Amino acid sequence: MSNKKYWTSLDELNQTPLYKEQAAKEFNFKIDENPADENAGTNRRDFLKAMGFSVSVAALASACKISTHKAIPFTFDTRKAVSEVVPGVADYFATTFYDGNDCINILVKTREGRPIKIEGNTDSPFTLGGTNARAQASVLSLYDVTRLATPTIKNKKSDWKAVDVEITDKLNSIAKIGGKIALVTGTVSSAITKKAIEKFVAKYATTTVVSYDAISSYATRKANQISLGSSIIPTINYDKADVIVGFNSDFLGTGISSIENTKKYIANRIPTKENPKMSRHHQFQSTMTITGASADYRYPINPSEEKQALINLLAAVGGSISGKKALSGKDANAGIEKVANDLKSNKGKSIVVSGTNDIDIQLLTNAINGVLGNYGSVIDTSNSYNLKSGNDESLASLANDLNAGTYKAIIFLGTNPVYNTQYSEIFKEAIKKADLSVSTADRPDETAQFCQYVCPDSHYLESWDIITPKAGFYSFLQPTISNLFDTRQTAESLMVWSGDTSPIAQFVQSEVASITGGNYQSAIQAGFFGNILAGSGSSANIAASIAGVKTEIVAAKGMEVIFYEKVALGDGSYANNPFLQEMPDPVAKVTWDNYVCIPYSYAKSKGIDAQPADKNVPIAKVTINGKSIELPVLVQFGQAANTLAIAIGYGREKAGRAGDMVGKNVYPFIKSTNGITSYSTDGATIELTGKMYELALNQTYHTLMEDNSLPLREKKYRGSILKETTLAEYKKNEHAGNEDREKIKEEFSHSLYDGYKPNDYKQGHHWGMVVDLNACIGCGSCVVSCSVENNVPVVGKRQVYRSQEMHWMRIDRYYNGNPDNPDVSFQPMMCQHCNNAPCENVCPVNATNHSSEGLNQMAYNRCIGTRYCANNCPYKVRRFNWLDYQAVDSFGKFNDGKRSFTDTEAQSYMFEDLTRMVLNPDVVTRSRGVIEKCSFCVQRIQEGKLNAKKEGRPLKDGEVKSACQTACPTNAITFGDQNNKESAVSKTFENSGRNYYVLEEQHFLSAVGYQVKVRNKDEEPAEFFIDKPGV
Amino acid sequence: MASHFESPLREPLIFGNKTYKQITIDIVKPTTGKVQPKWLFWTLVSAAFAGLFVFCITWEVCFGIGTWGANKTVGWAWDITNFVWWIGIGHAGTLISAILLLFRQKWRTGVNRAAEAMTIFAVICAGQFPIFHMGRVWDAFFIFPYPNTRGPLWVNFTSPLLWDVFAISTYFTVSLLFWYTGLVPDFGTVRDQSKTSGRWKFYNFLSFGWVGSAKHWERWESLSLILAGLSTPLVLSVHTIVSFDFATSIVPGWHTTIMPPYFVAGAIFSGFAMVLTLMLVARHVMNLQEYITLAHIESMNKVMLLTGTMVGIAYLTELFTAWYSGNIYESYAFANRAFGPYWWAYWAMMFCNLVSPQVFWFRKLRRNIAVTFVMSILINIGMWFERFVIIVISLHRDYLPSSWVYYSPTWVEIGIFVGTIGLFMTLFLLFCRFFPAIAIAEVKAILKVSGNQYRQKQLEEVKNQEVYKNTSVEAGTWD
Amino acid sequence: MSDTKKYLVGMFDDDDVLVHAVKDVRNAGYEITDAFTPFPVHGLEHAMGLEPTRIHTAGFFFGATGFTVAFSMIMFINKFNYPTDFGGKPDFGFLAYVPIIFEHTVLFSAIGMTVSFYYLCKLWPGKKPKIIDERTTDHLFALTFELDSSKDAKYIDSVSELLKKEGAIEVYQKEV
User: Fold this and answer.
1) CB B238, CB B87: distance < 8 Å
2) Distance between CA atoms of A425 and A436, rounded to whole angstroms?
3) Residue C85: its chain A contacts at CB < 8 A?
4) Cβ-based contacts of B399 with chain A (< 8 Å)
5) For residue A628, what is the enclosing H or E element?
6) How confident is the model at residue A29 (pLDDT cuts 50, 70, 90)?
7) Contact yes or no for A729/A738 (Cβ under 8 A)
8) Residue pLDDT, tens place only, A388-446
9) Per the CB < 8 Å rule, is A849 touching C88?
10) CA–CA dist A377, A375 (Å, integer)
11) Rounded to an integer, what distance in angstroms lies between the CA atom of residue A706 and that of residue A26?
């Protein structure tokens, strides 16, 4: 009898009596007795009952006498499988999304054996059910056709036996003569991989292990070595902080363990009537990130000034340090004072963080936090991360040694230094020179293409593993589908090469068992083990920290450049994921490209249009220390005056169809100063080439303030779209910023049709949604989640340039205030399901009308595509299938992506059968020429209603969650039944003074309520600025 | 004869001392004889453009609307712009035949036949766009309320697009009936002039065997009169209903009650412009100076001056209302028209439609062929821009600034538009070659009233009468 | 139309003369079978004493039919057979249906009248016409007198006499 099982609910996990009873009701089928069952033992039947409708592939396996160390594909032996799997019912597997930066506990939704959707694991004490866009999109990369199907030798197909033999031979011969072996890894937080590496090193003594991060936090560890005596990255409890000061730290977007931090951050950012309290967030930034966008106060500073700013701040909060000097920006100078005051009045309840990879800067933040006594309260050094443990110095020295040719063998554990380090050329040469070069990348990427052997790693959804993001917390990976290709986990490869051929599954299982003290089942079911202990830990040695700082500051020459990471693409390893490529950058609203962000003031002086209506932007030539690169120009409001910003992670050459040649690669521009990789530099020049570029923007106008360049017009603010206020105002009046609602309600209490009473949907359900503008940080997780859930096609760069994108849900981003340092507001926008929907009465064929539950519904098969409804939608949320994006066209495969004779063809990313396995079978794919839009995830509503009906009870609030809601790391979105007086939605609609509807005065009676954005500012929100739109 | 009397001061509409015989010969001539190379050349050129139309439509249907520049915000662009433009042009013909017939405007007889033909062809061109702008044109039949087995499943009768379907099809049918019924007697004439039996059979078939019996003529006149009576409200209703597409929507810049009158005036305006363009060409190519006289041209210029000014007033009224309403979306929509990214389209419209027609206040310019021709072209362009302004500029910036976009057409859209012009010209040239381009019977009917020689006679007769003592009009002073 | 009839034909070259002649001939008590003219000659129908056509009456009834059809169709569909919930609008907002009802009225009336016109005139594509004189669609006007068995030579002479006196440019007999 196998001791494994999977679970879908806590009831099941804990085997509550109610659950057992239901399970029994559900599956009291007769099991055919066959000899094999004897092995299973008499309790097999009870066990099956107990499992309810979850798949027990292993139990099946044991029954079928198949060694249990492999997950069995759904298609295996259906004669058995059928009785276990209920077609049409989803099974959820707990596993873990992990890249060196994030570790997220997730549930994988599988249908008929195919993983089709990622959901957050709400039981996890670590990420609390939050997900980010990368995790949401990762399910698509499982079906990436670019992945290698077999190991290769010199880029020719081969098989594992051959590869293993050759590699081990070479390794042995190299080891014999004492040749050095380099093992180049990324951050290794996997207990399994760690063990495998140990084994490998034990076998081949001459091995040096070098681990690096493309985007490194090494300086933080180095600084903490000085301040705390151990090179750790401590946990920061943003929820305990009342004042948060960030210095170029994107802890909400791309920072270490961003989901965990976002959850904590937002916990203290939502004021309510009962408890009108929120933390105050100051952000000193060189460019604009979503973290800066969520800040209450932003101060643009040039990268070179960050250190000075911190010195000034340290001095201002009472640290004993010399070298105080005024900053160039007067905002920033004033800011330092303000911040210092806030900090001093919140000692022990504040935090100063910097994301800059610079020891001095990290030491300074440590010193400041030390002075403020934030250690132990906000900063928890006892809970440190195993993430981002790359070592810049060892990478640098490796580069030197490689140059010298000391290494006979190089093995890349999935790393891609040829692409994502500044040592690209060195690595290329070294690989060519080496006797043995191996890569475990899952595709022939920039590095692997030169390697003699490529031993493709399995996708994480096919893998076993144990991740320890923090000491004492274990996060488990289990396969949700058997290997699609002939791939093998890196750890397993290493073990094989070090002579240990025991299958990895067993290894992991025994490890898990030992970690959890034999409590294997529930651990794997839960997907994690252990708790996040709220420890305290030691405080920083302030004196040592300050002593460590080199206070002299070299003034920057020329323009400065900061290389930043994008929320979607990260370091570039996700480049071939079209969902992420098409996800607009939360701040810049650009898809499918990187570009050079220039400050508004500079654009003005050069006469560059900050809001190019036609999306045609100039191409600029940026020259940094002799090397130059041509990039499209994007005017970034709020960017420091003398700074340029360019995103890394683009310009892949061997990523795959979606990712190749998108944007330009700027890793080669990154320099390392005395061993530490630095992501900003100076001495740059920028000049316009006079050429223009078609930038795939999906928002070209950035403010709610109208163009005051129009004569005879006073400035007007479209106040009914986005409302905001300050905490001070909100404390005085819970309707602050929302005062006009009463008047509007009164005005529209009468109807034009006398005696006609329109349907108010008071019968049955009336679905509604609440979006809290205070919670939304614009991360875009919901956008991707929506696309995956609803089979929303990816349209490609050209179509986005033509504004023909298909996203059902978007996040509008508006600036207000001073263009050099504006406030930023995010507004998720999806179909509002208006009771008086303007789209409905104009459809000539009745293809869209209202359901009895208040849903504005589309009949795709009836739609003939006149687009009249889209024109008449005031929220512009209706989307038209311009081309055959899903390759489902009745006219044959004109747009199957293989043809290139028309430049207008759809960039269909959904035409390969493998890729189409990600499609959600509950949602129909739309053919060319029909309108589609947000359906409030009607398929989930139906599922919820059915389940309730089966169990003969009313639908519970929160039982049906929309895809955007489950994906949101800040719970900004709440979905529910307006007719259920107990539901969160109707409670908010009735009680919250912050609740309003977009364009309410137009009387569309929309079903999506928004919560007024509250900023923790002392003064009123700045007047909305306008920048003349492009003409 | 009393029935033939009208003020001798009126200008004759037929010159060159025509007799009935002569009229027949003159008008039937183009349909007989050898093919002129000039005609053949232009017909082939037009046919080539018609071919381009077919190609571009095929392309669009095969690949999808995505081959156009239309997008998430600007759902309608050149397609509906061209539709409204063509429909507008299609108004002059019926207007001339119907309303002028009711008003007993004798000058219509010279031009009504060709104008009606133009109407038919323009509506044919217009009809292409609502059909091919559909995402799934192969399901276009969904828009008809036919009983079906999916049922009950019907169309939405509150949708202005559905009103369009009925309005356009009705308009086309009625215009066609009206036009053809007028043609029948003239086909009879052509038949009886034909030398070969083939031609005889052909035209006899077209003429339904017309012989011109007195009773037939009586019914024929009564039918024409009532069809005219029906067409008059119809012609007004069609563009009114087209304007409902916009007026009943919620898009700022569309949602205005001024739309119907403004659209109708615009339609007549552009229609007359197109009639003139074609007339002046036909008049020149087919030597019809004696039937399409300066009097015709001047009267049409007067109508254009009137309607053009009406349209202009509508533009200004819109601006005023937008500003006066204080509605931020409305007022921005109009400010954006004039000063936004598409300012050039707006001012092109303003110049062509409001400013330039004012030259027609001067009689000299009204009667100047060259000026008239240039003006007619300008007005056609201006009216196209008017529709572009209304449709695209209103859509591209509406409520939520986040969705504001800029639209520019692709070669497919341009090809389709140019193609319809080719289609239109092809049909018109074929018409000129094979059909009597001027209503023979009707011209004959007014010969004695407006024929030059008869007018001269009348002048002689009335010279010494009291009433005309102080008039300075002398024989033949009209040219 | 196999059987042919014999006619006495008087040709005129001016419509005013024709109308005058018609009056006199009828006053003289002769019955004119038919007149053929190249264009509608005003006053001719009165002179010949043709009773006014009732085609416009027909037009009215056709229109009424169109109105009824459209109204009842929409009423049936939107109110009873397929009421849907769209845009918070009532199932039967009459104003929204005026355009279609109007168009139907016009369409029915126009088609009905035209069809009845060709029906009454016995005109259809490819009909073999009985042409008295080809010039009547060109520049001449014809008056015809059917010559059946009852008409003797005396009758023919006197009519020809009268026609010549009235200004007929030629008078002849023809069988068609």
Assistant:
1) yes
2) 18
3) 759, 849-852
4) 718, 721, 874-876, 999, 1002
5) strand A627-636
6) very low
7) no
8) 888 988 998 898 888 888 888 999 998 999 999 989 999 998 898 888 999 999 999 99
9) no
10) 5
11) 60
How many cross-chain Cβ pairs, B to C, lie less than 8 Å apart?
A: 196
Q: Copy the structure tokens of residue B391.
A: 């449709």
- Find residue B423's DSSP bridge partners: none
pLDDT interval class at B382 (50, 70, 90): very high
Per-residue model confidence as pLDDT tens digits over A827-867: 999 999 998 899 998 999 999 989 989 999 999 999 999 99
Percent of chain A with pLDDT over 90: 41
Strands A243-247 and A407-413 come out as unpaired
Question: ipTM of this predicted complex?
Answer: 0.88
User: Using the beta-carbon criterion (under 8 Å), do A929 and B65 form an inter-chain contact?
Assistant: yes
Report the gap between the CA of B240 and the closest CA in chain A (Å).
Answer: 17
Taking alpha carbons only, the member of A276, A285, A280, A284 closest to residue A296 is: A280
Q: What whole-number distance in Å separates Cα of residue B17 and Cα of residue B10?
A: 16
Taking only the tens place, the pLDDT of each residue in A2-24 is 444 455 455 555 556 655 665 55
Q: Tell me the two tokens of residue A558.
A: 């020329």
* Residue C73 in contact with partner chain B when CB distance is under 8 A: yes
C24 touches C30 (CB < 8 A): no
Flag if B185 and C39 touch (Cβ within 8 Å).
yes
Least confidently predicted of A634-643, A701-710, A995-1004, A1008-1017: A701-710
Q: Which helix (H) or strand (E) holds B329?
A: helix B328-339
Report yes or no: A703 and A718 within 8 Å, Cβ to Cβ: no
Q: Are A770 and A1011 in contact (CB under 8 A)?
A: yes
Of C86, C90, C93, which is closest to A849 when you measure between CB atoms? C86
Residue in the structure block whose two tokens are 């009165």: C46
- Return the axis-axis angle of helices B259-285 and B411-434, rounded to nearest 10°: 50
Nearest to B406 among A614, A838, A863 (CB): A614
Q: Which residues of B touch A802 (CB under 8 A)?
A: 66, 69, 71
Q: Which amino acid is at A678?
A: S
User: B 6-35 residues with CB below 8 A of A?
Assistant: none
- DSSP letters spanning A363-388: HHHHHHHHHHT-BTTTEEEEEEBSSS
Minimal C-alpha gap between C48 and chain A (Å): 54
pTM of this prediction?
A: 0.87
Which of A836, A846, A848 is facing C88, going by the closest CB pair?
A836
User: Which residue does chain A place closest to C86, by CA atoms?
Assistant: A849
Distance CA A121, CA A588 (A): 30
Q: Judge whether A576 and A603 are in contact, CB under 8 Å.
A: no
